[in-house]
Amino acid sequence: MAQPLARLSILDRAGGKDYNRRARLGKIAMSSQPKPRILFTRDEIEATVNRLAAEIKKDYPGKSPILIGVLKGSFMFMADLIRLLDFRLEVDFIRLSSYGKGRESSGKIKVVQGLRSEVKGRDVLIIEDIVDTGLTFSFLMDYLRKKKPASLKLCALTDKPSRRQTPVTIDYLGFTVPDKFLVGYGLDWDEEFRNLPDICFLE
Ligand code: IMP
Ligand code: MG
Q1: Quick one: pLDDT band at residue 117, thresholds 50, 70, 90?
Q2: Catalytic annotation, pick one of 80, 123, 129, 132
Q3: At what angle do helices 42-59 and 75-82 cross, to 10 degrees?
């Protein structure tokens, strides 16, 4: 535990300047500077990604799925996960806008960067960082279903069921998380904290 906490305090200090700048610009109040606290350590994440890879490996024998990472939050998870998958696969990314700035969902979702691959008739596995309200995922399901994939499944690193507004089936789930704002391991708060190696929550 000593190492993650030490690294966090370094990042706290590194982020200080930018907080001051943003506070001056009125984006955040100086008093509301959030501090990341560890929820899941990098070791717990590693064990969980190993488990998810084992589950996925059982279900895709002889198939060559397309794994679609939802940018940007899934990039670190995706990179760790696919290294453990020893079968043929393709990687693609889609970027959606769901959250505006800060912590609240805008509720309006659109495709900001579309897929390059042909999804029709293929096995598709979506890789998400977090399922929160579920609005992003249901939009994505509708969007991808229209492209007629052979199968469509979801692998999510984290699930925050207390905030759900629409039902979501998660085929492969890493962690169920409390109703706290998460950062780190790819997850951001207004583009900050993605580089934290542990999954943290903001105080
Ligand atoms: P949903 O549409 O509410 O399910 O939100 C999905 C997207 O919102 C996720 O893919 C994240 O990019 C973002 N999001 C939701 N909750 C959090 C959080 O706690 N931390 C960081 N991003 C989040
Ligand atoms: Mg996301």
Answers
A1: confident
A2: 132
A3: 60
